[in-house]
Amino acid sequence: MEDTIRLYRTLFGNRAYVRSVCEGAVFLAASSIAIFAAVAYATVHASNYVTDFVLSRVGPFNVRFLFIYGTFTAFAITASLLAGRPNRLPFALKAMALFLLVRAVFVALTHMAPSPIDPQQPAPFFNSIFYGSDLFFSGHTGLPLLAALAFWHIPQWRMFYLALTAFFGSIVLLGHYHYSIDVLAALFITHGVFQMSCWLFGRDYALFRSSESPAAPRPTRSLVAPVVADQQVPVELDRDDEGAARPADVQNISRPRSLGPARRRPGVVQQPRERPQPRQQVRRVRHL
C-alpha cells in the first residue's frame, strides 16, 4: 500500500503524466458522447432484422443477468487493476477511447435491427444502456479482448480476459443480443485498435508496462581476449522495449570461459585490446 501511495505521489507530481491523464479523460469523454449519439441514430433509423446461421439454431435464452451484471463485474475488476497501478491509467483511457470512437463509426454506418430476443425487458435504465441497435461490432466481446492484449505480459490476467472474451461472446449469441458476424468481427477490429493505440500512444504503453519487471536475461560470456583470471568485465545487456526508459543493467562476469577471440554478439560492449609494447632494443657497445 505504501508503494502504491508513493507511486501516486511521484506520478501526479509529474506534469507530463498529469497532462497525459487529462488528455485521456477528455478523449474518453468525447468518445463516449460519440458512441451514445451513434447508438441513438442507429436505433431510430434501424431497419428489419436479418437471419443468422448461429442465431437460427440457438436460443434465444434468458441470460440478462449475466449480460448486465457480468459487465459491471468486469468493469469493477479492471478499475481495481488500474487503480492499483496508476502508471497504467493514461494508456488505458486512450485505448478505450479509441475503441469507442472506432465503434461509433461502425454503429453509425450500420442500421440493422437486433434479432428477436427474450420479450421480458429489464429496467428502463438498463434497457437504455444495454439494448439498442448498436450491433456491429460487439463491444462486450471487443473490450475484454482489448484488456487481454494490454495485459498480455501478465499471464494470469491475460488468461482471465481471454476467458472473459469467450464468455461474453457466448452470452451475446445465446441471448441474441448480437449477430455472429458482430462477435467474429470484434476480434479482428479490436486487434487493429490495439495496434493503433500502441502506435499512437507508444510512450503511454511503455509506461503501462513499466511496473512489471521482465524476466532477467541470461548473462553473456565475455568476448574480450586475452582475459586475465579473476578479471571483472562489465557487460551491458539489451532490454526489450518494455517500460519506461531505465539505465542498462550491468553485470559482472568473473572467470570467463573463452580465452581466445570469439564471435561478436549483440548487446555486449567490448573493451579495446591492449597492444603489446615493442621491446626496446639495447645496443651493445663494443669495447675497443
Strand order of the largest sheet: 1-2
Task: Name the overall outline.
Answer: elongated
| Domain module tally | 2
Name the helix and strand elements from N-terminus to C-terminus, one letter apiece: HHHHHHHHHEE
Number of E-state strands: 2
Q: Ranges with pLDDT <50 over ≥5 residues?
A: 213-262
Largest sheet: 2 strands, antiparallel
Query: For the CA atoms, what is the radius of gyration?
Result: 29 Å
Please, could you describe this protein's structure?
The protein has two domains: 2-208, no CATH class; 215-271, no CATH class. It contains nine helices and two strands; from the N terminus they run H-H-H-H-H-H-H-H-H-E-E. The protein has helices spanning 2-12, 15-44, 64-84, 89-109, 124-130, 139-150, 155-174, 180-200, 202-208, and strands at 233-236, 250-253. The chain has 288 residues and is mainly alpha-helical. The model is unreliable at 213-262 (pLDDT under 50). 27% of the residues are buried. The protein starts with a helix and ends in a 35-residue tail after the last strand.
List its salient traits:
288 residues, mainly alpha, two-stranded antiparallel ribbon, 2 strands, 52% helix
